[in-house]
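retry 2 of 3: previous attempt timed out while embedding FE2/S2 (inorganic) cluster. Reduced batch size to 1 and resubmitted. Inputs unchanged:
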Amino acid sequence: IENGINVALQINGRTQKLLVDSRMTLLDALRERLALTGSKKGCDHGQCGACTVLLDGRRVLSCLTLAATCEDKAVTTIEGLADGDNGPTGRLHPMQTAFIKHDGFQCGYCTPGQICSAVALMSEAKNGEASYVTRNVRQTAKPVKLSDEEIRERMSGNICRCGAYPNIVDAIREVHGDKAVAQV
Ligand code: FES
Ligand code: FES
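retry 2 succeeded.
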């Protein structure tokens, strides 16, 4: 490969060594080199959120992330959330279960990105990361309780052309439950 770079990626708990073009996105590396096609290519321009994955626990748009910059970082894709893909129990992640229960999808194209984003949203709230909605933006030390408006705002980078938004909010609210204590 011209401009080739050796990179070791930690994908869903496994080390994957790849020789990639230095311009290859993480999304293309996942889909085309590792056959992890759960992450979807919607726009390839950072506008739809379909390609969202977790990088060291933070949500990122994999279409805007170069694979070569992910050396030794932990990448979690939708395939890595369910215990069934990696573990012995075959158990879905609670967010996946909630999306099914609340019909949080129709065609499903946006769903892997929605779920990865929703999982990251939960840890942002747990870590007391600042409110996007209130003017009083701040970092709190305590977990934050998310209003529906706050959930919608924090999920606004994930577009759903089927309009499953109300059910997505229902699913996230259920998982969010009473795990957080302080109201924003
Ligand atoms: Fe990455 Fe649309 S495919 S944001
Ligand atoms: Fe079809 Fe969201 S379920 S795009």
